[in-house]
Structures are given as structure tokens and as C-alpha cells.
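Notes on consecutive records. When two proteins share a document, each keeps its own sequence and its own C-alpha cell line. Never mix them. Below: protein one.
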Amino acid sequence: MSSGINSLLDIAAAHWGSATLNAAVELGVFDALGTGEAGAGDLAREIDCSPPHLEALLDALSGLSILEKRGGRYSIPDQNRPVEQTAKMQLTTVNASDSTHFQPESI
């Protein structure tokens, strides 16, 4: 592969990771997990979403080392608790800001 393709793949991977984290924050995954652990089915009932889709998201978060998965149960590793809080604060700031410059009508 050329360096151009590698750069493109790096950009795509960065987007997928940030989209995964954003989805988890918006669904309330981190709040639902708290300091404990839970299976995908229990979390899906708590945050009212589809169990198989949530499990795919949780597995993606585990693959990114944001969550830990042991025996079908997920938890937030201690070293990621500050990261999770920072992500929630940043996403809240972005969502609360004026995003009219991102709207197609203003292009």
C-alpha cells in the first residue's frame, strides 16, 4: 500500500473511533455502567435500545480499549474514567455550540 492509502485508512479509522465513542455517550452507556459491570442485555434494557446493536457497539468500544469485556460483561477500566468524563464534556460543548456553519444551506 502506498502512503496515500495508509493516510486515508488512518483518517477513516479515526472517524470510526470517534463515531463509536459519540454513540456510546449519546446513548448513556457510560452512565449506565457507572463503576460496575453489566452484560449487553441488561444495559440494553436500562438505556432502551436493541440488545444485538448495543452488543456490537460495546464490542467496538472494547476493541478500542475504551471498555473491558470479561465473560460477556462490560466495564469501564479505571484508567479510562477521566477519558470518559472528558469525552462527555467535549461532546456536550460541541452539541451546545452553534453549528450553523455545518449546515448544507450555509455552504
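Protein two starts on the next line and is unrelated to protein one.
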Amino acid sequence: MSTCCSFTTKSKDVGEDRILTFDYSTILPTGVTLSSIFSVAFTVVQGTDTNPGALNNGPSVIDITGTMIQQPITGGVKDVTYHCKAFAYASNGEKLECSGNLLVLDR
């Protein structure tokens, strides 16, 4: 399973709704695209949030290029760092992972 990808959102405000983008383009072979999303999950890296899954603000989608997963998020707890991880299947059958950390701030 490949795990080297780009995660575009590094922080957000508590009251802000955002779209997390998991960019798989650097690990997809030429001509291969994402075919389905297996899961998107949130865990706490630092701080306290008893329900990190509440960041999820709707269904995740594969973008029009077939190389990125976009996940709407909302809320979060001030000063908590979340680990956000997406798993997807590629058109060649590979299961791919992309992840990164997200800090929630109160600006």
C-alpha cells in the first residue's frame, strides 16, 4: 500500500467549514485514477476530543481529475491536532493511503 501523497489543509478555525483535499497524483502510475473511496477517518494526535469523527461534514468525493479525494469538514475542538487519513482504491486495484495532520485554531 502506497502512502506518499499530498495533504493540502494544515489548519482551520473552529467555526470554519473547509474541504480537505487528499492528493494522490504523485503516487498514481500513469493512466491510473482513483476508482472508489474506502474510508476517511479522523483521530486525535494532540489534545482532547471525545468525538473526532464529528469533523466529517458530508460524503467524501473523488474530484473530476480522478486523483484527489475531497472531504468536507466542520467544527473541531480548539487547539486539538487531528490525524486525517483517507484510503482509496485505484483503477489498477491498488489500495492507497493518504494522510496528514490538521490543527484546529480559534482565531
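For the record: The first strand starts at residue 6 and ends at 7.
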